[in-house]
Amino acid sequence: MISLDTAMIFFPIAILMAMAPGPDNIFVLTQSAVHGRRTGLLVLLGLCTGLMGHTAAVAMGVAAIFQTSEMAFTVLKLVGAVYLAWLAWQAFRSKAGSLDADTEGNKSACSLYLRGIVMNLTNPKVAIFFLAFLPQFVDPAQSSIAGQIIMLGVLAIIATLLVFTAIAFGASMIGEKLKRSAAAQLLLNRVAGTVFGALALKLALADR
Predict the structure, then answer these.
(1) Does position 149 have pLDDT exceeding 60, yes or no?
(2) Sign, CA torsion 181/187/189/195
(3) 3-class secondary-structure state, position 2
(4) Domain-located, residue 17
(5) Is 134 in contact with 152 (CB distance < 8 Å)?
(6) Does residue 121 sit within a domain?
(7) DSSP letter string over 46-101?
(8) Of the four listed, 5, 74, 116, 190, which is most buried by Cβ atoms within 10 Å?
(9) How many domains does the chain have?
(10) d(CA 200, CA 45)
(11) How high is the pLDDT of residue 17?
(12) What are the residues whose beta carbons fall under 8 Å from the beta carbon of 96, sequence distance 6 or more?
């Protein structure tokens, strides 16, 4: 079990990390703005589930594979890049009114939840980040290292939930106003497509 002092130091840092612009919070922002709060929150739950997977991987040492194996890292990042490129293509081909709450926003909760999981788990940079970040707050003199890693991961997930929920609510409010104009909605779709495309390119070119 981690100490209270460690938790009090770690949690504010985790909040700041969640606030820093990155693929996950940008993904929540664009999904919420284009498709509404429900979509953003369901995607967020999927992302946090992915973080649970990364935490477990670090605790078991599996994440080290992606740090040492070039092939594993490359395969996973390309899968993620292809998925983001597909989302970009969907956004670009959509006309005004085709991505509003009556279509995309009404997809099943399961499909939106899985979208967040896929987005998070196919980014090997997250696994490597957790592998480098969490152990810095582990005290070998305390309880089991794996147990401490899991607790730190839970705190990181709570921080992510707090920050990303605020992002989802704010972006959805802005998106609702923009959707009243067909031209603004079309622009919003194009912006989302551009962001997804840029994230796909960034992930495809990422180095360990």
Answers:
(1) yes
(2) negative
(3) coil
(4) no
(5) yes
(6) yes
(7) HHHHHHHHHHHHHHHTTTHHHHH-HHHHHHHHHHHHHHHHHHHHHHHHPPTTSSST
(8) 116
(9) 1
(10) 21
(11) 84
(12) 182, 183, 185, 186, 189
Tokens of 150: 């899991």
Judge whether 12 lies within some domain. no
pLDDT, tens digit, 9 for 90 and up, residues 177-195: 766 666 666 776 777 778 7
Which phi and psi (to 5°) does residue 191 adopt? -65, -45
Smallest CA-to-CA distance from 167 within 11, 26, 50 is with 26
Please give the Cα distance from 203 to 72 (Å, whole number): 14
Give yes or no for residue 136 having a pLDDT over 90.
no
The 3-state DSSP composition of the chain as helix, strand, coil percent (nearest 5) reads 80, 0, 20
Single-letter amino acid code for the residue at 136: Q
Range of the domain at 171: 29-204
Tell me what pLDDT residue 42 has: 94
Judge whether 50 lies within some domain: yes
**Using one digit for the tens of pLDDT, what is the confidence trace for 33-54?**
888 899 999 999 999 999 999 9
